[in-house]
Structure formats: structure tokens, C-alpha cells
């Protein structure tokens, strides 16, 4: 039987992925490409709804794709492409926009949060209709499964409503997708503020571990990670968030249980744990960084892989859009 179609997008909104992205998202995407007909899209159409610079956006788009391939997204097994290479996204987005209530779109909490953050003069119609384009991204491929974080659940609900609305008005056309939260994975916290999640939007980079950073920078950040004064290596998120974060990272990158890691380091100092962690991080990120840099140095090969992905994605997107056009009398 055909594998179920899975769609997921990532914004090219940073120079490098960080450890949270790697553990929380990328490792799942790599694992899911076996079970699913997976489509992974670098969503640059979405990225221009926040402030951006064209040159930087172009570099980040390629670097994001390169890191995915380097980490294990197989462009033969999965469909990996850049959104703007497939114009059908925008075309279907327009059509779905005509089926979306103004009030319905206005209830999207992510829009409300972001527009408040950006200020009224920087809020655009594009940001407002972002969830409609996201619906188009998913419906274009007749995706059955969409892995999402909790913050995207409302957008998946809108996508389902639009699919059902279109189907009931114009006849069975779209697969109604299901959002799902992939198997529980470790949440990674900031090294300097270990009760806040590691995020590219953190006030400083001191708490980040990034895939593409120089290993010396990463080691320094790990050695300076916030711990506590009791000096004992134990896992206790409430009383010892810093040490617990280091233990959880060590466990997830070395594929071991936290208890086993605690046992290994019982009686050692925090410095020993940090040194060992820096080595495990480099053991994981070193080869990914090297492969990413090779891909970025050979633009021709990277662009060929992305073109191939776009060709495959376009062929599938066109089938859906042809059917949609027929249904609405175009
Ligand atoms: P950021 O917070 O850096 O802006 P995004 O919101 O772009 O990251 O998240 C991209 C993906 O990475 C999402 O699937 C998200 O769940 C995952 N992710 C981001 N930060 C973390 C983290 N600290 N721990 C685990 N997963 C994370
Ligand atoms: Na974010």
C-alpha cells in the first residue's frame, strides 16, 4: 500500500539550526521519512511575512536545505524543495482565501500575537493570510498527516475546515488532514536561562548550541552554561534546571537513558560533564557541519537536488490544482 502523505514546512529564518530544532524537529523528520511519503518544504513564501533581507533570505534558504540533507533528510526518499519554486502554493492560497471568513482569519491567535509584537504599521495582509497559505501548502499535496507543535493546532483546524468547506461546496476534492504531535521528544533549554526553551529569538546567543557554529564557540558556551552551587550531578528539573538540561542533552545525543547518564557521571564534577557533552555535541554536529559546508560550496549540486525536489512537488501540486480549477469552473 502507498505510504501516507506527510507535509511539513520549515522557515529559513536563521543562519543555522540550533540544538532544539535538531532534537525537537529534525530527528523526527528524518525518522518519519521511512514510514511516510514525506514532503519537506523550505517555506520562504512564509518567511517574508517577517522582516528580512533578500541576500540573507537567499543564503538562509539554501543553508536550511543543506542542513536538512546533511543531517539525514534523503532527497531521493523524501521530497525536499523550496516553496517559491512551486507556484501552485500561491495559486491555491488565493482560491482558499476566497473561502475564508474575514472574522475566521481574525481569530487566529498567532496573527494576533505577531501583529501586536510588530506594531500596527508593520502588520501586513500577508501576515494575516499566512494561515490560508499554510492550508494551501498542506492541501496541495493531499497530505494526511501534518506534524505540528502546539502553537500550530489552530492553523490545522482552519486547514481542515477549508478542506471540508471546499469539498461540500464543490465536490470531494481534498483529503482532510490530521495534525499530530510527533512522539514526545526532549525539550531543550537555553544554556544561560535553563527554564526557557532554546530559541533563535533568545536575547543573546550565549545560551544557544548551533549546528554550524565553530566547535570552539560551542565548547565555550557549554563550559559557561549555568548550573548551580550544590555541585552534585542529579536530574531534577525544578531544583537543578541547568544540570538537568545538560544531562538531557547528553542523553538524547548519545541515545541513552538519562538515568544511565546520571550513573556514569555520579561523583564527577560539572566540568567533566560539560567537557564530555561538548564532545558528544561535536560528534553529532561535526559531520553535519562538514557536509553542509560541502553542499554550500557546491551550489550546483545543492541546486540540482532542490530542482529535482521542486519538479516532483510541482507535478503533484499541479494534479491537485487542475482538479480544483475544474471544480470551480476555471
Ligand atoms: P525557534 O524557537 O528557534 O524560533 P522554531 O519555532 O522555528 O524555533 O521551531 C522549529 C522547530 O523546532 C519546531 O518543530 C519546534 O518544535 C522545534 N524546537 C524549537 N526549539 C526547540 C527546543 N528548544 N526544544 C525542542 N524543540 C524545539
Ligand atoms: Na520561533
TrEMBL record:
CDD domains: TrpRS_core. It comes from the Bacteria. InterPro entries: aa-tRNA-synth_I_CS, aa-tRNA-synth_Ic, Rossmann-like_a/b/a_fold, Trp-tRNA-ligase, Trp-tRNA-ligase_bac-type, Trp-tRNA_synthetase. The keyword Isomerase does not apply. It is an enzyme of class 6 (ligase). Transmembrane segments: none annotated. L-tryptophan binds at residue 137. It catalyses: tRNA(Trp) + L-tryptophan + ATP = L-tryptophyl-tRNA(Trp) + AMP + diphosphate + H(+). ATP binds at residues 11-13, 20-21, 149-151, 188, 197-201. It holds the Pfam family tRNA-synt_1b. GO terms for molecular function: tryptophan-tRNA ligase activity. Keywords: Aminoacyl-tRNA synthetase, ATP-binding, Cytoplasm, Ligase, Nucleotide-binding, Protein biosynthesis. This is Tryptophan--tRNA ligase. It comes from Gulosibacter bifidus.
